[in-house]
Design goal:
Residues 965-1065 form the Type VI secretion system component TssM1 helical domain. This protein is of the alpha+beta class. It contains 46 helices and 25 strands. The chain has six domains: 2-67, no CATH class; 134-443, no CATH class; 444-653, no CATH class; 684-830 and 846-890, no CATH class; 934-1061, no CATH class; 1070-1180, Immunoglobulin-like, CATH 2.60.40. A hairpin with a 4-residue loop joins strand 3 (180-183) and strand 4 (188-191). Helices cover 53% and strands 10% of the residues. The longest helix has 55 residues, at 445-499. Mean pLDDT is 79; it is low at 82-93 and 837-854. The strands form seven sheets. It has an eight-stranded mixed beta sheet, with helices on both faces. Strands 20-17-25-24-23 form a five-stranded antiparallel beta sheet, with no helix packed on it.
Length: 1198
Amino acid sequence: MLKRILLSTWLWSLIGILLLSLFAWFLGPYIDIGGVRPLGDEVTILITSFALTMIWGAYYGAQYFAYRQAQKRLEGGLTEGEAADPKAKGKAGDKAAGAEVQMLKGRFEEALGLLKKSAGAEGRGRHYLYDLPWYVIIGPPGAGKTTALVNSGLRFPLADKLTDGKPGAVAGIGGTRACDWWFTDDAVLIDTAGRYTTQDSDAKADAKAWTGFLDLLKKNRPRQPLNGIMVAIGIPDLLSASRDERAGHAAAIRARLAELYDCLGVRLPVYVLFTKTDLLAGFVEYFDDLGKTEREQVLGFTLPLDDGRGEAAVTGFERELDILVARLNERLVDRLQGERDIERRTLVYGFPTQLASLRETCREFLDGIFLPTRFEERPQLRGVYFTSGTQSGTPFDRLAAAMASQFGVDRQRLPAFNGPGRSYFLSRMLRAVMFNEAGMVGQDEKAERRRKWSARIVYALTGLVTVGAVGLWGLAYMNNRKLVTEYNAAIAAYNEAVKAVDLALVDEKTAEQNMSRLLDLLNRLRALAGIDRANDPVPLTYRLGLYQGDDLRAQANEAYHRALEAAFRPRLLLILERRIKDSINDPEALYLNLKTYRVLAGAGPSDAKLVRETFDAYWKQVYNKPEFQDSVTRLVAHAGALMERPLAELPQNTDVTQQASDILTREPLAKRVYFRIKQVNAITQLPFWRLGDKGGRLLDDVYDTFAGNPPSKVTMPGLFTHEGFYKGFLPQVQRAVREATADSWVIGLPVEQSQSPDALARLEGEVVAQYEDEFIQRWDEVLRSLRLKPLDGGTEAVLPVLAKMSAPDSPMKLVTAALARETDLGTPPPPPAAPAGGLAVPDPAAALPAGGIADAAAGALGLGPIGPAGGPKPGERVSDHYAFLRRQVTAVEGGKAPVDEAVAGLKTLFDELNQLRAGGGSASGGAAAAQQVQILAERLGPPLSNWLAAAAAGGQAAQVSTTRAQINEAWTGTVAARCATAVKNRYPFTAGAKDDVPVSDFQALFAPNGLVDGFFKQNLAPFVDTSGNSWSLKPGAAQNLGIEASTLAQLRTASRFRDAFAPSGQGFGFQYTIEPVALDPSVAEAKLEIDGVSMTFNGGPGRPTILSWPAQMGGGFAQLTLTPGDPAATAATTEAQGAWAAFRLFDKAAMSNGTSEAEKVLRFTVDGRFVTYRIKASGSLYPFKMPEFRSFKCPATL
């Protein structure tokens, strides 16, 4: 019992807990983790030790409880399984059978009770049944299992109580009702009594009950439900059975093994016992000389461990059997010499051969059980053993039987054994082999191996940790000793360096003398203080409660701050005095330097950030070479370190500070506050607004800047955006104003006065005005800088720009909308979206107070009203200034936004020019579209007006450049040739010409919408100024047509022909009135006949006659006849013929002007006699005898 206690895990774990407690008590206070000592006081150590002990007790208490419960469940399962036995239920009506069952149950329970008492009395604990290894014995009836167990030499503790002092079994109940239980000191053996091998009774019921028993074992002994299986079969049963019968035995045993494997889930070692070996001829005689101890040896062999993956262990049976036979043969000589009886010597001599003759039979039997198959896992054969429990029966001689069968002679029967029975080869085989390997079984071989290796690793790691901890402590001690030595050496070197540096101050001009040496000294002290490495983790090899670095650093830190105060701070003050004098003309820099000076002198609140930033800017300016950057960084770090502790107030240079204060008092405070707002990190870190992010992908293809930079590179500081106003500027105004007034101590003003409500409000309004001025100035610059790309490259240059300007993602629209949005400071940002499932966030602009939308926005930002009451609201001036931008992107009721109209106009212009380029459009259409864009430009304000005007001009220029060639081609192809043919050397264009211009040709050329008029309207009208007496090209792009003035004059003449010959503007032809006015006294009668109309005039009142040209009928003749009053005189006549007869006739008269341009007076003189007529055309022009007829020439080209 003492040995068990000494080897128990609970004892050694308790010792470990005690050692940990001692460790915590003696060494715990020295453990330092990141500056924290978790075991630094006795109470903590006691609590830790108590907690460790409680954890240990809880763990083993839970283990003991689980152990005990498993024991109870196992015992209960063994004794209460009858109720679940269907066979027992089927016999419930049989009283005798019931009584027998109750008797067996009582006997089994009594056996378990006696077993626990016996185990407790002998010091093995009350869990005897649970702790012992369990084995199942499988074998056919009569295999000699009982005999082998009774004579095995094992101790049966229940023999005196239940079996009359003799070894015996206890009958099982429930699932083991047909089993015999053998309780020994070393193991629990369950003899299946043969029926679970053959199952030749009620197979279904037996199998179900047995499976239930196995499940009970698996549940309550999960790691080792069984420790092994013994397969027992008698040698006579094998030798007397046929080959088929032996195969049947093997198959039945293999099935039972498979059943055990499947139910329990573990590969159990199988020990095969060939019993009744004493019935082999010569067995008794061969081993007759063995004493009791020798008979307890093992006759057989244990095979290598079969892991189920390699070669099956059963394949080694023959080899091991040959070794065993060879061993028997080695002993044969000595045994023969010791035997005198000739018959017994013969039997002794033949025994090894008799055993060897079993090779084939046993191999076939074992192969049937243990050889692997494709469908099931092979059993694990652990060993094969030959045993004899007692000697009874008649031995048989296999050799003699074989010879008798071969030679046909009678076999001589051997005499039966009649001596006292003795057991052979059982005791050590059970105890030393089988029971000694009880721990071999595991739930999973791999898991068991991992568990064992894990335990080994834990033990190894524990040892390594222990050794490592001791080694680390030793190393930590050495490292800290070295650290102290190095620190002392550094301090000594520092003291020597101080002696070589002149730290005396003279004035501000010499303040930076020896600064490099001073910097070296400060760097040394700072390094010793470890300030720059304060957050670096301390290596483990320096800690473990021995670290001295913190104490050493504290001493160095004190020396460092003394040096900063004594040598560094005075120099900084002198530098600032010089900076104040140098910045007299720069109010912003002056204020910054003065404030820093007062802070550093201890005359104001501490502001480490201000000091660092001021000197960082200064030293970067002074030491601007790359090699000095590290020095600048270190100097700034020293300045910051100086400000880490409260500064004692030092005397100031009042001459310098008073002068600076006087100057700053004259500087507008609002300007300085606004400057400070712009320096705030929250402002400087606002992202830049980029036009490239707002104008879309086509921005740089459409726009240019006057500076020549791509528009996508146009940026605006984030402060001057809609978001910057509400999220950057407004939240800073009141804070900056209050800080600035709170800083009035810098310039000597009383704080109370400067922080009055009215003064603060006025200052806020002035600061806002500063912001608004710069906001407008900056955005005006952006508006002025943007322009369309130059559109002077003809159609190929203009069309791509127009296409992109009129695209759905038009940069013009996007830019205008972006500009309107950023400058609309009167509209606060939308409220944040409500969280999912939460309440909506109220819109700060939903209910505006009387102060207006800016105050509502300020309220939404958690601010009070900004600026004086009744004054302009923040951002209002900006919104008003850029209201035109919002109008351009806002749709009017029932219509489009102006910017959308502009896009549509540009789209029309693009379409017209594109058609014109393709030859399918007209110059007038393109010109009209360009004119419409120009009208839009004149109606809309900037910036759209500027961009549209440029687009209209570019479009018109492109149209002109495109149409010039087309116009000329159209003129020469459709007008010029026909015109020249029609008028050349023809009347009325050539005076006195024999041939007339056919009226049809004249009409085709000069009628309204005729060739000339139609061509002009379609191609030239948009470009020609027709308002004056002489036509000219319009200013601008039309000048690029290059049409000569003479050509325009001919076109104007053609238009006068149209007006004269088609005064109604419709059709062709005109009416005219002829009225006689005067007649020569010598003429009795004047007769005028034109195109079939005759008019007679005798000198009395004339009557007007209306005629038409061209005549509807009877045309082609005109004649004037003057009949004299003297009958003897001959009448005078003049005439003309052809379609132009009237024109030819009228050409013979002298013409004078009438009362209008359409009226003329014609005086005909024929043979010295005259007649006068007044002719008035129905239109505004006089078509007869037009001087343009003689000057008109058809232009060959334009």
